[in-house]
Amino acid sequence: xxxxxxxxxxxxxxxxxxxxxxxxxxxxxxxxxxxxxxxxxxxxxxxxxxxxxxxxxxxxxxxxxxxxxxxxxxxxxxxxxxxxxxxxxxxxxxxxxxxxxxxxxxxxxxxxxxxxxxxxxxxxxxxxxxxxxxxxxxxxxxxxxxxxxxxxxxxxxxxxxxxxxxxxxxxxxxx
Length: 175
Hints:
Layout: E1 5-6, E2 15-16, E3 19-21, H1 34-42, E4 47-49, H2 57-68, E5 75-80, H3 93-107, E6 112-117, H4 126-138, E7 142-148, H5 152-164, E8 172-174
Parallel strand pairs: 3-4, 4-5, 5-6, 6-7, 7-8
Antiparallel strand pairs: 1-2
């Protein structure tokens, strides 16, 4: 096994440097992708992205986790707050918590190792997002958290707020 791993604050397991994303068939349609997931896991990939917005991918991935009984070895990255298909903004506590509840159910787990906002909404104060994620983190429902498709300025703003208020900062971000 030549996979490299790294440590991310607030994630209790090593995180493979290669993540496997489930934003594709058969996962998005809720199909059985167990052989593909087994192959990736066999290569040393232990970190999987199964965001709320990827159709039925979380459900497919949750089926694999349950069948293989390997949740303790797997790092789950999921995302919340993606705008609705009609463009309605969803970066707020109600929608983020609704996504988290549904993700936990679909993934058949009681926590998500890495949880991110799928999109940003610059009209929402970065501090508000930090507060919501810190509450989820304090409840033990998420480990590390951050933003996907956020600018580096917004991430800096979020972390500045976190440090100023002695809170957990964003640990992860992706373009």
